[in-house]
Every structure is written in structure tokens, then in C-alpha cells.
Amino acid sequence: MASTRLRGVLGLLAAASTLARVAPMSLSAPTHALHLSHARPAFARPLLSRAARARVRAFGEPEAEANAGGGGLPAWLPGFVVPALGGALFGYDIGAVSAVARILGQPEFATASFGAPLNEIALGQIATLPLFGGMVASFAITLIGDTKVGRLAELKLASVTYFFGTLACVLAPTLPALLIGRATIGVGIGIALHAAPLYIAECAPPEKRGKLIAFKEAAIVSGIVLGYAAGAITGEAGQWRETFAPAFLLEGAMLLQALRLPESPRWLALRGRMDEAAQSIAQLRRCDLATATAEAALLSPPLKPFSEVTDVTDGGASQSALAVFPLLVSEKSYRDALVIGCGLVLFQQLSGQPSVLYYANSLLGSIGLGYFAAVGVGCFKLLMTIVSANLVESPDWGRRPLLLTGTTAMAVSLFGLSALYATAGPALAAGGAGAIGAQAGVIALLFMFVGGYQIGFGPITWLVLSEIFPAAVRSPAMSIGTLLNFGSNYAVGTLFELERVQVGEPVLFAFFGGVSLLALLFIYTKVPETRGLSLEQIEEKLKGGGAAQLKIWIRTGIDTDRTLPEKQRTIDAGKGRGPLSGGDGSTADGMGGA
Questions:
Q1: What is the pLDDT, as a whole number, of residue 163?
Q2: Which of 208-212, 506-510, 532-536 has the highest mean pLDDT?
């Protein structure tokens, strides 16, 4: 038994090492081979002007200059790896704890570890306590703001916190010790998920911003698959401690790479540290310091240096979310953006997604399927994430159509699961040959739900959050969104197993289906299409007429170049280009295209 356990752990560590070394590079592979432009429902089809389509097509131009001097690797890759590994660790924890909850849900394994079986509430805490830790971290970021702590510093802190949380879980002698470790991991998750999209958005080429943030979701799903695989190897033997161990390699890779990266040039420039911003640009873009210095000048605060900024609208310097919250709710354009962002986050979680992820092993086990079935779900989830990443900048798709299509699939699958459990529940519980048809139905509907989520809510929510908020309030507004995400995720995940036992699957899945219908209505009436627009254009549209006016513009193709500020007209005319400029002429000052 000891040798078998050792071989299993070594195999898991080897797999984690491969993911830490290869996954980020595989995500950087050319995606044109996966380009998809299938027909979709008419209600989800945006109507773009020729000018808008031309701007979108410009995003696909090659970046020979950006790849120079990097041995064939794109210049943006190192800055993507660390946020991607932070996401992979979050995903690994989701997949691993799905197996751990199933293992400790068996009385013999729980008794051997802690002296007594665990009830539904204890299992729920093991699965979802990281969400509480993430909520605590998000609340702390909301209070502190990002005035002193940069994006990269947050990512370094996240990797260290992840490590100590994993160590506590692996060595936990008692249930309280395990719960402390789970909460510590959650703090790392909360820090990483706040900083990762911001670091990508502020460092990546503008024309690749959308895809890279979507591929960060693919990194999360890669971690989920690895976590499911770890559970498949250790689950039958009840080795729940060993299931956590492979995360050590991902945490080490994240910290080592973070130590080699510069701070976000945008964050540095907003604080008046222009020399450091230029050095950051030179390292990230592999250009000479003179070119980087000229580019850094475009990132400087428009009115005052950071040390003199006293109002968030003065110089673009982010303060804490509490400091800017009155502005977020009083200024119409900010309020519209806050409604869109918070609405997407809430519907993303309340539609049942956390429950399916955290309890995938338990759900599949309830219909007689083994641990490896969850690995299949995770692989399909990864595939659909890659599909979404390749459609998000397509002229035939975009953010809004993917959200509408994915949420429709979620609603249909949830109502289908409700009906199936209502009519074939006893057969599913009994198993055997008589339940094969019902089991196949559950699997098909589960895959439909996962596919719908990964086409829409999974990657698109965080992408829209990184785009919809103006630069002056982006970081504090993102911290509010992250806090809301973890709070709702924690509530849904903690109560799911208890609700499933008390009210049954038919009622629970029908409730989630109803929430998905409300989400469809919200997306259709509130969420605009932002593909092909620079962040400055989005801000101008929201200021001019709110989200509804922005939606009308993107659906009718109205040319609004006359309404753009002089800076954007200059950029669109082809001036002010540099190493951080995108294929459409937009700059990487936080106002570039997604």
C-alpha cells in the first residue's frame, strides 16, 4: 500500500510539473486553426459597420515585431504565464476538492482521518471555505486599494499564500486544521483573481487582450482537469491528503516566474514612476529603452502626477473601493458599468455553476460513475473554453452573442436535469441496467450545462469586467466584482449539498434554471457588445447615453468617430504608435482595444 501511494503521488507531481512547464506555452499556440464562425441565433447576431469590422479584422495581423528577439516565443508570453498559473491553481483546487469531498463523504475514510463521519455542512465547508477566504481577501483589497501594492506584488503574495495553505491541508491532523488550510488557500485565490486580469489587461498587446483573458479561463479549466485527474488516481484508496500535493509544483513555478517579471507599466505610470514604467515596457516588449521611454510618456497621468492626486477623476490614480464608491453610484456612466459588471457576476454564480464544479464527483457518483468520469467533464470544459476564446474576437460572434447562446444552453440543460431527476430519480438511485438510459441523459445534460457555461459566463464575465469600467475606477471596481463573486459563490457552494439532500435534485435544478432565464433577460436588455471598441470608446459611449446607447451603436453600425475625444481620433488616424500599440492603432495605456 505504501509503495502504491508513493507511485501515485510521484505520478501526480510529474503531471503537475508538466502542466506548470507546458500549459502556458500550449495556450500561446496559434489559434487560427480553431477559428470558428458557425451560424447562430439571429437574436445573438450583432450588426457591425464596415469600419467596425475593419477594426476587428486588424486585430488578427501578425506581431512579427513583438516576437523579435525572443527565440520564437511571443513577447507577451512571460507576462501571461504568472496570471495563468494563478488561475490554474484556483482550478486545481476546484478539481481536487471535488474528489476530496467525495472521499471524506464516505464514513470509513472520514472516520479513519478524523475519528467520526462528516455531515453535509462539514463537507460543504471543506469544499467551499476557500471561497470564504477569497471573500476576506477581496474585502481587504476593497479597503486597502492598490495605491501601494501593485499587480505583480499581489501575484507574488498569492503564490506564497497558496503554498502555505496547501501545506496546511497536506499535513492537517484534524478537521479544524484542514479548514484553516482551506481558508488560507482561499486568501491566495482572492488575491490572484483580483490581480490576474488586471496584470494581463495592462501588459498584453491591446489586440490580444480579449483572447488572453479568455485563455486565463482556459488555464483555470486546465487546473480543474488536473485536479480531477489527481482525484481519479487517489480517490479509490481514500488518499485525500495526496490529492492536494501536486499544487506545490504549480505554486513554485508561479513564484519563480513572478520574480523575473516587472511591475505593470500602467500601474507604475499612474503613480508617477515613469523611469520604472519605461524599464517595465522595455522588458515586456523586448524593445530599447529610448523607445520604451517614449511609449511610457503615453501612460502618464493626464493632469497631475500621482503624488498630487486628491480626487479619483483628477489623475486616474486608483484608490480603495470605499473611497470611490460614492462616485461609482452617483456618476451615471460608472453606475451603468457597475450594474453590468455586478449583474454578470451574480448571475454567473447563482445559476448553479459552483455546485456543478465542486460536487461533480458526487453528482457522477450518485448515478454510479467513477472518479474518471469527472476528468471527462473537465476535458470537455477545457475544449469549450478554447472554442469561446477563438470566437470572442470573431466578427461573427463577440461577447454578447456568446453570453446569450451559452446561457440559453445552461437554462435548457438545468430544466432537463430537473425533469429527468423528477421522472427517473429512483432508477438513478438504484443504478443497474434499468438506469442506463437515465444515466446517459444526466451525462448529456451535464455536458450541455458545462459547455454552455464555458462558452459564455466562464470566460466572458471577467473579460467584460476588465473592459466596462473606466481606467480611473477599474481596480477598485474590479475588487467589488471579485468580492461579490466570492460571496455569492460561497453561499451557493456551501448550501448546495444540504439543499440537494433536503429539497431534492428536481427542485434545486429547476431553481437554477429559473435563475438562468432571468440571466438571459438581463444580458439581452443590459449587456452591450464591446468587441471591436477601444476602452476609451466604451467609456465615451457610456458617458454619452449609457449601456443602451452603446448597444444601439454596436447593433446598427452608427459611425461615432465624431464623438471621440481628440486623443482617440489621433490614435485612430495612425499616430502615436509604438511597441505597445495594437494593430488598430490603439495604445496600451489602458485605452486600447480588447
A1: 96
A2: 506-510
Answer for the pair 388, 210: CB distance below 8 angstroms, yes or no: no
The 10 Å Cβ neighbour count of residue 62 is 9
Contact indicator for 374, 363 with CB cutoff of 8 Å: no
Cα separation, 344 vs 284, in Å, equals 32
In sequence order, which residues have a C-beta less than 8 Å from that of residue 316 and are 6 or more positions away?
270, 301, 302, 309, 471, 472
3-class SS of residue 359 = coil
Q: How confident is the model at residue 266 (pLDDT cuts 50, 70, 90)?
A: confident
Compute the residue count for the chain: 594
Q: What is the DSSP string of 384-452?
A: HHHHHHHHTT-TT--HHHHHHHHHHHHHHHHHHHHHHHHHHHHHHHH-SGGGHHHHHHHHHHHHHHHHH
Half-sphere CA count of 222, side-chain side, radius 13 A: 28
CB contact set of 403 (below 8 Å; sequence gap of 6+): 344, 456, 457, 460, 523, 527
φ/ψ bin of 123: left (φ > 0), alpha (ψ from -120 to 50), beta (otherwise)? alpha
The per-residue pLDDT for range 356-400, each reduced to its tens digit, is 655 555 666 665 666 667 677 778 888 998 999 888 878 888 888
Distance from C-alpha of 524 to C-alpha of 41, rounded to nearest angstrom: 13
Record the cell numbers describing residue 384, joined without a space.
469549450
Strand-pairing partners, residue 534, are 593
Please determine, for residue 543, whether its predicted confidence score (pLDDT) is greater than 50: yes
Residue 463 grid coordinates: 473579460
Q: Give the other-Cβ count within 10 Å of 376's Cβ.
A: 15
Give the separation between CA 41 and CA 401, rounded to whole angstroms: 9
In eight-state DSSP terms, residue 204 is: S
DSSP state of 261: S
pLDDT at 307 over 50: no
When mean pLDDT is compared across 105-119, 287-301, 575-589, the lowest value belongs to: 575-589
Q: CA angle at residue 208 from 202 to 214, to 5 degrees?
A: 90
* pLDDT over 90 percentage in the chain: 23
Print burial letters for 515-540: b (CB count within 10 Å at least 16), e (below 16). bbbbbbebbeebbbbbbbbbbbbbbb
CA-CA distance, 340 to 529, in Å (whole number)? 12
**What are φ and ψ of residue 534, in 5° steps?**
-75, 160
Q: Give strand pairing partners of 341.
A: none
DSSP three-state, residue 593: strand
**What pLDDT digit, counting tens, does each position of 61-78 carry?**
334 444 444 456 787 788
Residues whose CB falls within 8 Å of the CB of residue 321, separated by 6 or more in sequence, listed in order = 141, 142, 143, 145, 476, 477, 479, 480
Buried b (16+ CB within 10 A) or exposed e, 106-117: eeebbeebbeee
Grouping H, G, I as helix, E, B as strand and the rest as coil, residue 286 is: coil
Q: Which of 525, 506, 396 is nearest to 445 (CA)?
A: 506
Look at residue 465 in the predicted model and tell me its pLDDT. 83
Q: Are 540 and 253 in contact (CB under 8 A)?
A: no
Higher-pLDDT residue of 120, 509: 509
- Crossing angle of the two packed helices 2-27 and 77-104, in degrees rounded to 10: 150
The DSSP symbol for 119 reads -
pLDDT at 586: 33
**Is the torsion defined by CA of 89, 90, 92, 93 positive or negative?**
positive
